[in-house]
Amino acid sequence: MWLILFCLRRRRFFLQLENDRDRDLFIEAFWRQRDPTPGTPENEYKDEHIRRFNYANKFYGRSTTREGWRTDMGRIYIILGEPVSIERFESSNFIVPCQAWSYYGDPKKELPPHFVLFFSSEEVWANINSMIQLLTVQPAC
Question: Which of 25, 59, 107, 134 is the most buried (most CB within 10 A)?
Answer without folding.
Answer: 134
